[in-house]
Amino acid sequence: MTDRGEIGVVAPTTPTRVRSGRPGSLRLALVVIMISMLLMGIVQLTVGAGTPDNLAAVAVFTGTFWIWAAAGIVAWWRRPGNATGALIVFGALSVFVGGLINLQVDGLVALSVIFATTILAVAVHLLHAFPSGKLRGRLSVATVVAGYVVAIGLQAALYLLVDDPRAFDAVKAVQASLGLVVMIVTAIVLIVRLRAADQVHRRSLLPLFLYGSIAVVLISLTPQVLRSFGAGSFLIGTIQLALSAGLPIAFLIGVLRGGFARTGEIEALSAWLGLSGATRSAVAQALASTLGDNSLRVYYWSEQRSLYVDDFGAPVLAAHTDPNRSRLEVRVDSRLVGAINYDNRMIENEHDVRQAGDVLAIAVDRERLAAELLASNEALLQSRLRLVETADRERTRIARDLHDGLQVQLVLLGLEAQQIGTAPGVAESTRAASTKLRQRIDGAAADLRRLVHNVLPAALVERGLSAAAEDLVDRVAIPATLEAVVDDDSLASATTHTAYFIVAEALTNAVKHSQATLVQVRICQVKNRLLIEVADDGVGGASLDSGTGLKGLSDRVDVLGGTFSLESPLNRGTIMKVDLPCAS
Amino acid sequence: MRVVIGEDEVLLREGLRQLLEADGFEVEAAVGTAVELENEVELHRPDLVITDIRMPPTRTDEGLLAAIRIRKRHPAIAVVVLSQHVQRRYATELLDQNSGGIGYLLKQRIADVTTFTADLRRVAAGGTALDPDVISVLVSRASRANGVVGTLTPRQLEVVGLMAEGRSNAGIASQLHLSEKAVVQHASNIYDALALPVDADDHRRVLAVIRFLSAASSTRRGD
């Protein structure tokens, strides 16, 4: 968790791809829609072939229909969380229906006339709903509804009133003026949105809005304008359709550029989070990618500071007045753990974010547990180190007390005992007894000397590791060599003590168990590491579990953050290698 | 004989002073730090310096370092270093010069007053007094050493070890249950093996000890 290098799974600049284990049924549905629309176009072309006069017009309509259909399906496929794709597919249907008039089948002609201008309403709808595909604000909703009323409702009225010229003209006038209002309101809404957008969004919104608005206006005005120049119906229709065919492509590009593709399912994301031990920034990236909003940010709640912080622990300003950004709080057992800040124009469905939030909650909770574990582990390591240091201090104190106190006492006692015997006029028996007593005191002193030496050798106190190791090697009962390249003064006392006791224990084991004829000790300091190697040519078979003091020493090495290895194959000698850190 | 004592433990310092004075030594000064010790030596130029190894302020090895400096500056002043623990490295450092006048003993040896004062007088006269504890280390190493010292027989090593302790031929003979004549023969063989020039016996003894000590220390260990 601590290693930010793990982000390496995910290149920092490219979105994380979280692959779903099973392709959702949505994909299947899109395939079915695609096949259906292909077939519808083929049917239209086939029927159109029966009326050779209109075949060219049928072909142009079918081509435009397919362009809309293809753009819609691609948008839907790449951005399953965005309704734009569905809307474009709906536009394709309206183009299809609009083209049925050319088939000259009675029922279809009526249908086709009623829905002839629906494509304009769809275009207005797309403009208002971009980029999420969802309408925002009552004005937008009202405008789009008005657009559909003008395009379908009034068109239907015109169809029914075709025999009543006065009513027809009146409705026609209403349709034209209402259509103009819809266009003006749409233009105002778009301009307001452009002004509110940030630089990045503005760059992708502006060309789309311009093209969309102009296309809608031109499509509605083309017939009057061109007819006055005496253009034929086919040319007019073709130009209208060409203008309309540009719309789905423009929206497709807009949708795909607005964010990166939503690449996976929430379940896949949660599995990935659970398995990979993702870092915080990787979690945020994965969420952004999964939801298809590259501006998505994940904030974490800091309980100590009572504020949100980002991936790196820097505080996040609380007030966010941008109406385009929403914040969803993430809770674990009603405890606030973080928040997801996202662009509500990119993600229309709060449910998706909430689901993502649940996944995030798991990740955050897991991270909290991991952090607690790390903290308690760290505390444990510190306490182990303190124990070792305390033990060393105690050892030093005991050795010093014995050295300064008891050993001196024994020298003085021996001296006094001897002086009783050497005093003038003392009986021979007393003299002999006093010498015996002095010798016994000497014996006790020798025992004490060995004890003090085992607790903490004088050389270690007086000179450091090399001298102490040398004294050890000097006194080994089997031939032993020492190579020591160490700056004794640079070593911390815990390192010095540990290294010394390792050599002492290894030598003791070699003498007691290995039947070796030679022991080689190497101690060298390489940069900030102290390397210790004790090798013998004995019978091998030593192990940490064999009840020797090795286990305790390997624990000590572990506490200091070093490594301990023991190779002791049967009859092939024993090599013990220890690597200790020694900050100098 | 004039003596300066360096020992930080007050009871021991006074004990030493008493036993030395009782034995006819003149104690010029008895101090508790290495710095004071060197000052007193400069002041009194004694025949003999007795010093502890660990003394204030760091209580590590300043007594030893002071002893080595005193020997360098005043080769005529004999030095006996006392310690709770003896080791080869210190013995080697003390006996670096090509001369005697060095003693290196466990503190506990003080209690055997007769032997101790005899050791002091011998060292003051240019002899050596190395502790049996450190001699045993040297002998075991010398037995594995290459070069001339490695060719000495175990018996010869025992003899040269006892010489290093400062034992007389008579003392060696009684310790090894040999005749004094046999000891003299061993000593002569040792001198020959170490190629020591024919000289006064005392000086040859010191040279033999120094050869033995430096051979045991400088040879590649274990070879």
TrEMBL record, chain B:
Annotated ranges, domain Response regulatory: 2-122
PROSITE patterns xrefs: RESPONSE_REGULATORY
GO molecular function: DNA binding
Biological process terms in GO annotation: phosphorelay signal transduction system; regulation of DNA-templated transcription
Keyword terms of this UniProt record: DNA-binding, Phosphoprotein, Transcription, Transcription regulation
Record-linked InterPro entries: CheY-like_superfamily, NreC/VraR/RcsB-like_REC, Sig_transdc_resp-reg_C-effctor, Sig_transdc_resp-reg_receiver, Tscrpt_reg_LuxR_C, WalR-like
Record-listed 4-aspartylphosphate modification sites: D52
Keyword set includes Nucleotide-binding: no
Entry-linked PANTHER family: TRANSCRIPTIONAL REGULATORY PROTEIN NARL-RELATED, TWO-COMPONENT RESPONSE REGULATOR
Name this polypeptide is given: DNA-binding response regulator
Organism: Subtercola vilae
